[in-house]
Amino acid sequence: xxxxxxxxxxxxxxxxxxxxxxxxxxxxxxxxxxxxxxxxxxxxxxxxxxxxxxxxxxxxxxxxxxxxxxxxxxxxxxxxxxxxxxxxxxxxxxxxxxxxxxxxxxxxxxxxxxxxxxxxxxxxxxxxxxxxxxxxxxxxxxxxxxxxxxxxxxxxxx
Length: 158
Prior knowledge:
158 residues; mainly beta; Beta-galactosidase, Chain A, domain 5; four-stranded antiparallel beta sheet; two-stranded antiparallel ribbon; globular
């Protein structure tokens, strides 16, 4: 039994809101990321190792992204997580724009281990809501408003 379970007997990773959930580590919901090791396992254990705060909004090389025209228009926080066994380092990047009611998020994966890793799944975010009293607003061909229900939902139109 993990140490935290003895200290907090009512705590469960399968019901706690997690910032960046992993596969196979006590949380039975859909993971935000999943990597496969050379031996076939897909279980990792990311732990906080540090953070950095910087001015501006970094670009995403090779991808379209938002930007700040000057460094004083946004602030970025990088939260660094590491799996000691595999050497996987994941950096969660959050940028807040000063003059807009907006925040962006991205994630960077880096293998510092000796063995290759296969990235099977990589989402920039996973959001757990405390209940279902929210509405979803989407802008595809027309504005649609739907209630949020339990389960997985994505908006995609080719």
